[in-house]
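Lab notebook, bench 4. Still working through the backlog of constructs that have no structural model yet. Next entry is a single chain of 346 residues. Request: give me the structure tokens for it.
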Amino acid sequence: MSRYPVVVVVVAAVLLALALPAHAENWADNPDYADHAGFARSRAVCDQLRAVALPAGNRADRRKQGGMDGCDSEALYYGIGMPADPEAAFRCAQLEDGGDMFGGDMMLATIYANGRGAPRDLDKAIAIACRTGWAPAEFDGRVSDLDDYRQQGDGPADFHWCDAATSGYMSGFCASHDARIAAARRMAGFQAFAARWNQGEAKARLEALITAAENFTQARGVEIDQTGTLRGAFVVMAEEEVRALLHQDLQAVAEFKPSLALALADRDADAELNRVYKRVMAFRFDVLAGSPTHDGIRKVQRAWLKYRDAWGDFVRTAAPEVSPQAMANLQTRHRIKQLRGVLHED
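Model written out:
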């Protein structure tokens, strides 16, 4: 069952491999925006705080030498798969590579801004934000928001690095961050499902269902429009949708929810799926790199058919009170919605 959070980490690793350098010069020193009136305030704030004492921005990973080998400040701070421990997150963040996504300086700024894990110090939070980022609007928005908190004195302790995300690049990482948190929350549910169906054929069918779900999840990326700057975020969101629905539907089976009876009465799901699928196959997608293709969607559909059939095999063995047809109808309705999204009808 642990493959779910691992997949999110893999997505983030792929994004990181495409990363631009996380650390820029001080935002106040960027000559390209020296005459941009809209950025004047944030640049002035960064200029005023350039002497604030901080850990080196381009520091290497020092966790092992610091006695916190393998620590993860993001997981420690947000309580991802473990109890939240902001103080340990603070110690860890100081030892992580300064440019780690949701580690290093990002977490230090968050901790200083919110006063959870270390005394609140908005000067330090802003000074870190002045040197960490990509898009000009992100520098400006993040610094301005933190400066607003500083001027308010005891402002809200809910600063989040993603609040100022404007670039597709950062939005992809934010989507992975949210997905990691959601996956950790679902893990308790998946562990309960594994404990419930933990013997013989039921166990084997549950494992086969999860494998089919992950295969379908990984296939979905090619039917998502990846021509824009938000492509990373959109792919992560599409993958997370499948995992969330898997958890939701397993819960429905475990509790034999009324939604299953309603799904059994659905007589039109297959016909509607055929109509929508034909429209998708007739749709003229852009020829730009990253656009969905009909061949790609056919591959996704084949993966989905295996996933749908795995649901039937699972309920026949593990939950005979649930009609396989009801589950097929339910999965078909999920798929219809996904295909409509390909047509931008969602």
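Notes after review: Residues 1-23 have pLDDT under 50 and may be disordered. The two ends are 31 Å apart (CA to CA). Flag for follow-up if needed.
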